[in-house]
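Lab notebook, design round three. We kept the backbone fixed and only want residue identities now. Task for the bench partner: fill in a sequence for the structure below.
Input structure tokens:
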């Protein structure tokens, strides 16, 4: 029933106005799935290769589509993803593009779910999924590669850890975002928005910490449940010539570790992503050793959703959490392998969007399917609310 009968690929717009790859997968019994590849700006050095969409589409039509159509069952995700890997023939999807691969992989999963009449999270995660929901990490203030002339730290993320439901968590983050805007106004600081819809004011990181603390605590008082915050430092983007650049100032690796450890304690941070350069496993391990008992130290550019890099990290205790971005590795099977390796080693897997997104909602289902403790998918703005609203629908069982 789930035999694939057609795979079509096209260029569509992403949230930055760039073209990206969208895939439609049809099965013999009329199952249909559609998915689009997201795209990063602060991409990790070791990510799978994103090709220009026109090239990725042409290569996938030539190499992948003939291996899928009439050959593979959409209901068998491992078979779909193995066909994509075989069609590509490289380690990093440089032949057909991780953008074509991930779009097809996710579209096939949706087509498989459609045939079974099951919601995607259940098709991917099994019948017992759907009772636990991830806490959304909401990007409230940011800069780095996502906004010019704003903070050095890429993302200040609200984390409504005490929210009684996913819906209340989603609305809490929106309130923190709105409160941060009021505080910026009170301080006379104008703020545009960055790629993910976070405020991108020209303030120092120190001031952003203060604003976050105030916004989070005001909304916590108003709503009556615990809200904390966290960071994506995206430190690889700051690391040049052996030091971390904060505007005109620099920090050595030891100073960076001290700084992050101090911020964890001063602000009771619940989550810190990419605090150090993507090649610095030892630095990650030292920081995790210092503060890993009270916060999540998460590897994004460090691990790039790749089981080999994750295993290296596990071997040295480099983090206690991994960020999962399916397009960093190219297929859902590879992303699941990374989640499973993390969980077998007592690490949390956090599911994430990219800074360039579409209205695709696959990651909301992936987070529920994998029982993720957190999902990072923005706070406001259509391509972010698409995922957040999908989480609310899943919780409401109305998908
Ligand atoms: C979402 C992120 O940004 P990008 O997609 O630009 O890598 C991130 O770094 O976690
Ligand atoms: Mg990151």
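Proposed sequence:
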């Amino acid at each position: 029933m789930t035999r694939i009968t057609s795979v079509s690929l096209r260029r569509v717009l992403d949230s930055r106005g760039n073209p990206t790859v969208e895939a439609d997968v049809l099965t013999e019994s009329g199952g249909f799935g559609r998915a689009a590849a997201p795209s990063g700006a602060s991409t990790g050095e070791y990510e799978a290769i994103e090709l220009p969409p026109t090239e990725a589409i042409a290569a996938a039509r030539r190499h992948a589509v003939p291996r899928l159509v009439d050959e593979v069952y959409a209901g068998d995700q491992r078979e779909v993803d193995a066909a994509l890997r075989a069609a590509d023939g490289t380690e990093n999807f440089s032949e057909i593009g991780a953008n074509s691969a991930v779009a097809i992989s996710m579209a096939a999963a949706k087509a498989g779910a459609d045939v079974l009449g099951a919601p995607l999270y259940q098709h991917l995660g099994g019948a017992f999924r759907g009772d636990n929901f991830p806490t959304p990490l909401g990007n409230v203030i940011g800069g780095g590669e996502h906004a010019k002339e704003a903070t050095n730290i890429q993302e200040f993320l609200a984390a409504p850890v005490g929210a009684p439901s996913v819906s209340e968590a989603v609305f809490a983050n929106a309130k923190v975002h709105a409160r941060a805007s009021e505080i910026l106004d009170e301080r006379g600081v104008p703020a545009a928005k960055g790629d993910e819809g976070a405020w991108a004011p020209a303030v120092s990181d120190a001031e952003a910490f203060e604003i976050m603390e105030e916004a989070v605590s005001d909304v916590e008082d108003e709503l009556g449940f615990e809200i904390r915050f966290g960071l994506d430092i995206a430190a690889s983007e700051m690391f040049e010539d052996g030091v971390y650049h904060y505007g005109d100032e620099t920090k050595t690796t030891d100073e960076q570790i001290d700084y992050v450890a101090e911020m964890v304690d001063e602000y009771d941070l619940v989550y810190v992503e990419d605090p150090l350069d993507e090649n610095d496993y030892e630095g990650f391990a030292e920081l995790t050793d210092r503060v890993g008992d009270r916060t999540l130290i998460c590897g994004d550019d460090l691990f790039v959703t790749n089981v080999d890099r994750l295993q290296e990290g596990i071997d040295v205790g480099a983090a206690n959490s991994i960020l999962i971005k399916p397009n960093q590795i190219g297929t859902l099977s590879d992303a699941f392998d990374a989640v499973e390796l993390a969980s077998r080693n007592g690490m949390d897997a956090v599911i994430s969007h990219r800074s360039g997104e579409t209205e695709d909602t696959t990651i909301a289902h992936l987070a529920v399917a994998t029982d993720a403790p957190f999902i990072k998918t923005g706070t406001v703005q259509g391509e972010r609310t698409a995922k957040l609203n999908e989480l609310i629908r899943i919780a409401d069982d109305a998908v």
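Keep this in mind before ordering anything: Residues 232, 234, 273-274, 300 surround magnesium ion (ligand 2) (CB under 6 Å).
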